[in-house]
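Forgive a beginner's question, but might I ask you for the amino acids of a protein and the tokens describing how it folds?
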Amino acid sequence: MKILILSATTGGGHMSAANALKNYIMSVESDAEVNIIDAIQVVSPTLNKVVTGGYVYLATKTPKMYGGIYKTSDKDTSLNKAVNIATSQIGKKLLPIIEKYQSDVIITTHAFASEMAAMLKGDGEIDIPVVSIITDFAPHKTYINENVNAYIVSSREMVEDMVARGVPREKVYPFGIPVKQEFYNEVSRRDILIEEGLDPDLKTVLIMAGSFGVTDVLKIYHNIVNAEPDFQVILITGRNEKLYETFDRYLSKTILQNALIAEFNSEQEHLFKTVKKPRKPKPSKPTKLLYFTEEIPRYMHISDLIVTKPGGLTVSEAIASDLPIAAYKPIPGQEEQNVEFLTAKNMAVRLIKGKECTNTITELLTDDTILEDMRASIKRYSKGNSSENIYKLLKKLCDK
């Protein structure tokens, strides 16, 4: 089977889903030909810079504006119709790639890619099945086109959302967002914690910080380590060098200051009852700081709670790992919709900055029944056979 996956690099989730599906297909059909293409880059490197850079800027600097654009683009407007016409013309630049690979089926993991492929099919330029994987927990108008043969969505609830938007029910499959098989593998949590130099008897909070600004991470960390229970932290900064270096200095400084305070208090202990009070150390917890790593499944498996921005792929990886989610600062739009779904299904809590964040973490880590109930909810929504089911669907579509 020859498969062409059209994706994009806006955010990391679209490409990650594409690679996860490719890896599975190659593992069960070694002679399959699976090619992943950055569709927006192919049709226009300039547009790719605008879309990718614009997404990052709007989402981080002006999230309310981004939310407004996201909401408006989910409606029938004259602007959207003009964009559709432009997309149809731009999409024709994909034809040389499609003709080059002579694929049996096209899969898309990004809304723009889905729109371009569907329009090419509608214009009669291509005549092969198009399968669209929606990498969030709520639909959006830009994904929907009558020329798409099948939609892969994250849940049964999302099937109803799609049907309400006019998509035939038989085209919608609640297989879940594909993630690496490693997230579903069972591991020895205790052994890995010991290997990582962590305490196997402490609860572990994983902070995925790459999508946050430096100031945001410091505030989040400060609020979290103010929580009363004993626990340890794994903090992963991704490829954010500034964040890693800033946090490395912050942690080193805190450890040094607290060591000096402890030494001073020990020396002055005989004076505390009559002259002064002991100095208070800065709030801290044992923390393992990591830069970019390919071992995310490993760290999710040994954690009791993940603190993260609620992107569709990260959330799906956490669900695959049976890991309760604490969602912080969702971007208005798809991330906000993800949080609404996850909290409604008791798979996540929403973190609010300041004292309320500290109180939420304290409650989660002191009442075991809360995390156990969240894990039970997550198991009900885990899609361990996502890639397998998508592969079977592709075979069926190609046979037709």
In short: The mean pLDDT is 89. The CA atoms of residues 1 and 32 lie 5 Å apart. Residues 241-268 form the longest helix (28 residues). The first strand starts at residue 2 and ends at 7.
